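A reminder from the course coordinator: this example appears on the midterm review sheet, so study it carefully.

Given structure:
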């Protein structure tokens, strides 16, 4: 009941925000069709927290989406501007930052390719699979080491993902692949002044802390089930050379006993 009310509220919020779309759906579809040389249609995607509105892009006759568009609503932007104040970044800046990070991840096989980045919207490949947090706990346990390794791999490549939370990791069991989405904030240039080691620690902490927090919010959650995740977490931080976190801190982050570090301003 609570869940369906939440979904309904989200849908209504989406439809309201859509009244302030920065770029019309018809215009977006036309731009994508021109880019790929085939007709497409857009379908609303109600998932996500909603700094941007998302649409799935289907090529004619296909039942699986090929791409995903993120676009802005001026109604949401006005609210963000009011709440965030001086730190507010325009959607153009945010889309540019997110596109750059996703493109860097795509180059190492850990994210969707960006096929178009315009001022009011951008389009990336749709990654088939499930968000890490959507998986049942035994599957999260199974995939967790590969997710942590993937974080280390993008950090090794010099990519700074500013929000690797458990909903921003896409697991594709069919192809045995991990992908990361949704990276924006902090302000342009600040990634250059944060030391590499801090960025790596932040990415690990963000994933572990958000995973524990989001699991605790899931319907039917039982605290003892969380313990299932402790052995793989313990093993990962015990074994990996020059490990960025102690196993104890990593488990405390999952438990929510300590709070993750933030990116230094
Ligand atoms: N390229 C993609 N491939 C597959 N699924 C995606 C992709 N991008 C987004 N999604 C799905 O949509 C959800 C929301 O997308 P995303 O994380 O980019 O937005 P958000 O969390 O709402 O953030 P924002 O505030 O930036 O809009 C994701 O958790 C994921 O399930
Ligand atoms: Mg997200």
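Designed residues:
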């Amino acid at each position: 009941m609570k869940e369906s009310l939440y979904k309904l509220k989200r849908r209504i919020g989406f439809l309201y925000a859509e009244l302030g779309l920065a770029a019309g759906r018809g215009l977006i579809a036309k731009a994508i069709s021109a880019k790929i040389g085939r007709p497409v249609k857009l379908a609303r995607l109600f998932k996500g927290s909603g700094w941007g509105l998302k649409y799935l892009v289907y090529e004619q006759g296909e039942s699986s989406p090929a791409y995903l568009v993120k676009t802005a609503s001026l109604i949401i932007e006005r609210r963000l501007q009011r709440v965030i104040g001086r730190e507010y970044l325009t959607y153009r800046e945010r889309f540019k930052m997110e596109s750059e990070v996703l493109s860097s991840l795509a180059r190492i096989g850990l994210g969707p390719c960006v096929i178009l980045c315009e001022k009011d919207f951008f389009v990336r490949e749709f990654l088939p699979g499930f968000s890490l947090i959507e998986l049942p706990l035994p599957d999260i346990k199974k995939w967790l080491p590969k997710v942590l390794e993937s974080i280390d791999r993008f950090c090794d490549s010099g990519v700074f993902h500013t929000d690797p939370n458990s909903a921003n990791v896409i697991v594709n069991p069919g192809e045995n692949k991990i992908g990361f989405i949704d990276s924006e904030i902090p302000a342009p240039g600040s990634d250059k002044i944060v030391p590499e080691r801090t960025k790596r620690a932040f990415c690990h902490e963000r994933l572990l802390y958000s995973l524990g927090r989001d699991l605790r919010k899931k319907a039917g959650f039982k605290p003892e089930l969380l313990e299932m995740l402790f052995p793989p977490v313990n093993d990962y931080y015990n074994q990996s050379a020059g490990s960025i976190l102690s196993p104890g801190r990593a488990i405390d982050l999952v438990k929510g006993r300590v709070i993750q570090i933030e990116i230094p301003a």
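The radius of gyration is 19 Å. The first helix runs from residue 2 to 18.
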